[in-house]
Amino acid sequence: MKPLKITCKILFVALAISILGCKTKQVKNQTAFVENQNVAQKPNIIFILADDLGYGDLGFNGQDKIKTPNIDKLAENGMVFTNHYTGSSVCGPSRAVLMTGKHTGHATVRGNPRWTASGKPVDINNEDVTVAEELKRAGYTTGIIGKWGLAENLDKGLPNKQGFDYFYGFNQHSPAHHYYPEYIYENDKKLTLEGNNHQTKEGQHIQYLFTEKATEFINKNHQNPFFLYLAYTIPHFELTIPEEEKEQYKNLGWPKRQMNPGHYRHDEDGHVTYAAMVSTLDRHIGDLVQQLKDLGIAKNTLIVFTSDNGHEYDNVKDEFFNSNGDFQGRKRDLYEGGIHTPFVAYWPNTIKAGSTSNHISAFWDFLPTACELVGLEPSDDQIDGVSYAPTLLGDVENQTQHHYLYWEFNESKGPIQAVRQNHWKAVKYHDKPIELYNLNEDVSEMNNIAEQHPKKAEVLLKLMNTSRTEHAEFPLVKRH
Question: Record keywords: Calcium included (predicted)?
Fold first, then answer.
């Protein structure tokens, strides 16, 4: 039998077809690989997350007391999403949704640490594929600075085990409640912050340290593509900021809202402190934008700014800042005030300056968006997100729309479920009839029209009942 002779040309073609036909499947902790793209052309991505900042706390959304000129400038020169939603109405699950692309009906973390069936905290795990892990596949250096909040057990959920090359901040929730913490984590090392005392509020305010570390990360990594998840803790309780930051808000004739320290070591005057905290956050963002310009990388950097859930500070019965804008509710609600978040995307010469989109999107869309921007398909084909990259790039005709959005939340007022489908919004408390709202006509959700539209209410109720998988630690039963 004669040996089979194959020419080099045929071998080359066969090999090329084989390579093109292969689909790479990511395995946890596998060696990062780079897709067939010019890495230098991939955008840097900075995702800035405020903590408990309300939709109406920013000037571009109508705020007239708190000064936010730098974030407003991002909006003026970027794109504002008017229909963007958080992952949840509290910190932990919202961040899990953001990182994994799965809504709270499917996410590993569906509630804050103490609200599990067993009382033991649940973290993201080895089966979860994070945005950072996806971007590592595309050759990115990845970092998180600030509040992670997905590693209560200090184990598998640690940022350095979830695709991040660098971490500086809080692994857990409770330490993140204080702005003068005694310690902080840098990667896997617990660092003592000398001179810090959270009881007396002495030492280094963590907001400034976060910004300092973000500056260092950008300086160190700006010559190659990087992803920075900058998860600030401002303006989450506790309310405290150095006195010099408050000067611009003193002597304005504002009524004083007395804040009483307890677990949260609040400063005395709530209104002045809250406004000063938000303005400090704004100034630091302005400094980071200027840094990008000075380094010559601003035009190749996408900045996204948003908040993890609705506000907690402003009193909805006696509003001063009107932090939730026209919306009903606040943090821990599934009404718009709890989950409808401010959103700005800024990318000079790529995103059209001064543009606005009413595309309905949510935190679980960030992972597929980041993947599309760098030329990847998401590794997990079970994610709930839809990429909004076409909208960012002005290709609205090719923008895929959500069939609907889903949330669930289960603390003392729960369980609560909500669905948005086009302009229809349904909210369901466990022991009450479904509520239905037409957001085009009633964005404040003041007029429940479920009885007038029973068929639509029935459709959305069915979506609620079929949009989740069971989770032993997060059953939809009454909590006390």
Answer: yes
pTM: 0.92
User: Which CATH superfamily includes the segment(s) 43-402?
Assistant: Alkaline Phosphatase, subunit A (3.40.720.10)
Question: Quick one: pLDDT at residue 41?
Answer: 78
User: Residue 31 above 60 pLDDT?
Assistant: no
Q: Please tell me the distance from the alpha carbon of residue 462 to that of residue 478, in angstroms, as a whole number.
A: 20
In what helix (H) or strand (E) does residue 389 lie, and over which residues does it extend?
A: helix 389-392
Distance, CA of 32 to CA of 142 (rounded, Å): 12
CATH class of 403-480: alpha beta
With a cut of 70, say whether residue 110 has pLDDT above it: yes
Q: Which residues pair with 420 in a beta bridge?
A: 405, 425
Nearest to 321 by CA among 213, 380, 370, 249: 249
Q: 110 is written with which tokens?
A: 């569906």
DSSP string, 222-286: TTS-EEEEEE--TTSSS----HHHHGGGTTS-PPP-B---SSS---SBHHHHHHHHHHHHHHHHH
- For the chain, the domains span 43-402, 403-480
> What does the alpha-carbon distance between residue 417 and residue 421 come to, in Å, rounded to a whole number?
14
